[in-house]
Design brief:
The protein has 127 residues and is mainly alpha-helical. The protein has five helices and no strands. Helix 1 crosses helix 5, helix 2 packs antiparallel against helix 3 and helix 2 packs parallel to helix 4.
């Protein structure tokens, strides 16, 4: 039986769907193209999913906490997240172990899953 997608489980559905899509794309990258492509897809997907989870956690903390300076708190968290993501991407790109095309495909896993869920929701409601 299929679980109904609601606001309460939407985040879990996005993560599970993205992990499934990542697995299919990474296996396809390894099997059809090369080890570098498969590693690129895998690295990009992991970076995208971890970044998405981190973004959600930061937003929950910002909205859940009533700090004295919420703007400064939010700014510092976002700058830290983007800095860490940029450093990881720099290391991945300059290492030479990963295909840039595969990395870009992996980084788009979350976006592709959200688009697919949006289309599914629109078709399901007749809109």
């Amino acid at each position: 039986m299929m679980t109904r997608i609601t606001e309460d489980n939407l985040f879990a559905v996005i993560i599970k769907g993205s992990l499934a899509l990542l697995a299919v794309l990474a296996i396809g990258g390894f099997a059809i193209f090369s080890v570098e492509t498969g590693l690129g897809v895998l690295a990009g997907g992991i970076i995208a999913i971890v970044n998405f989870i981190w973004l959600r956690n930061v937003l929950q903390r910002i909205l859940g906490l009533l700090t004295a300076k919420p703007t400064q708190y939010a700014l510092m968290r976002f700058v830290a997240r983007l800095t860490v993501t940029a450093l990881v991407l720099y290391v991945v790109i300059t290492s030479g172990w990963f295909s840039l095309a595969g990395l870009l495909v992996g980084l788009s896993v979350i976006v592709a899953n959200i688009i697919a869920l949006s289309i599914y929701g629109a078709l399901r409601t007749g809109g």
